[in-house]
Amino acid sequence: MDIWLRWLVLACVVYLSQSYKILGVFPHVGLSHFIVMRPLMKELANRGHEVTVLSHFPLQQKIPRYKDISLSGTIPILVEELNLEHYYDSSRLLRYRTVFELDEFAEMVCQGIYGSGRLNEVLQSSDKYDLIIVEMFNSDCLLPINSKINAPIVGISSCFLLPWLYERFGIPHNPSYIPHVSMNYPKNMNFFERLENTVVSWISRLYYSHWRNEKDNRIARRYFKENIPHVSEFANNASLILVNTHFSINNAFPYPPNVIEVGGIHLPAETEALPEKIEKFIEESPEGVIFFSLGSMVKSDTLPLEKREVFLRTFARLPQRVLWKWENETLPDKPNNVMIQKWMSQFDILSHPNVVAFICHGGLLGIMEAVQNGVPMLLMPHRADQFTNAKAVEDNGGGTILQMKDVDDESLYGKLKRILHPEFKAKARALSSRFMDRPMSPMDTAVYWVEYVARHKSATHMRTAAVDMPFYQYLLLDVIAFLIAIIFISMYIVYKVAHSFLRIKRATQKVKLN
Length: 514
Fold this sequence. Notes:
This protein has 514 residues and is α/β, with parallel strands linked by helices. It has 3 domains: 20-266 and 440-468, Rossmann fold; 276-436, Glycogen Phosphorylase B (Rossmann fold, 3-Layer(aba) Sandwich), CATH 3.40.50; 473-509. 46% of the residues lie in helices and 11% in strands. The protein has helices spanning 2-17, 31-46, 91-116, 120-123, 146-149, 191-224, 231-236, 247-250, 276-283, 305-317, 346-350, 364-372, 386-395, 409-419, 422-436, 442-456, 471-474, 477-513; strands spanning 21-25, 50-55, 66-70, 131-135, 153-157, 240-243, 259-261, 289-292, 321-325, 338-341, 355-360, 377-379, 399-401. The strands form 2 sheets. A 7-stranded parallel beta sheet has the order 3-2-1-4-5-6-7, with helices on one face. A 6-stranded parallel beta sheet has the order 10-9-8-11-12-13, with helices on both faces. Helix 3 runs parallel beside helix 6 and helix 10 crosses helix 14 (409-419). The relative contact order is 0.11. It is found in: Membrane.
């Protein structure tokens, strides 16, 4: 009995010694972003860590060791805020506006959160945190809370890394083959694509690294009312970043050791039973079912009437049934093979073996859910990173793109028939196999590196020296200038020597003649 008691005490000591207090800071109000963060924070709590989560989405059902500090109400939630009528015919213009829209939105988020007083619960608490996990997206304005907490920082990104994040993690950013997040360019770009991609990438980096960064700094210093370090210092001292991408889908990039890909971290280990009505609709379709959803931030019922009618006519021509996420009670002229629902469990539907295609907007979460289940996609990107995501999926064989502005009866029907072909299904399954073939699950990978940083109280040793180098050293401008100077000096010396030699030679010849 004494032996078992000793083992129990030892187990408790080991458990407590490896338990950390972790603060999660997630200021963005897009639910699709927090869907990536929440599973990680819940898993950390389940593994014995005490987590405090600052977000707009508190848990509906409390779980042990998980504490919410709600930001709900500080600014409007983005869910169902986007109207397709504003996007479908101007997608190219939107790619340029994205940078400035994100900046405007960052300003609203920062002012709203700091002005709400919700941060006081963290800053005035006596809790000592071992680690901060913070979303790195369009603003760093909340990073200065670490001036009070003084804990190592782990970044997390729900999407493709934004251009202004590359520098702080020492990632080489070469726009000749790394597409800007809002561009639908392939990794092998032609001259004009590389030209446009370079211009947009440089504008984005300069704008955020200087203009947005300074605004974040002013907001934070106005709140803290003291001479805290510049916001860029906190950003550049982050140990590592977890990125919700995977090279099988998003292509390969030159990431150093402090950039950890955890694409698919939000995917549940098991599926849940579908509602009886939906399951019956899927299983009783001999030709399979097409699932149509434009995500959590866009309302399908805002489709312009002429586009909606194209979808309805095309669906009526197909032998497959269609499940359509439609936010209204009714859909005029709905064909008999179409079922509408305001909300559906996307992952559980895509996991059903009788689902044969997915019409989506190119959001990264839906893409990964479809890829894991080997479901071919028809991608209709309309904003932000959806263009890059969609193009990467198309390049890797998981789907094909149809811009909303190009939707007509023949284009939609032709694209759907293409992805429904068995050959396309085989490509989607091959992509699924590559995506799932990993030494560790995305969640286990993320948890390991979070605990690694906490164990070592930092992981700045994983960064390359590029993080701390001035731009002129990083780009070798000083070396290039030195080499050019040496070349010119050498040429000048050669010129002077040759000139002197010729002058002496001419003088000697004159003497001989005389």
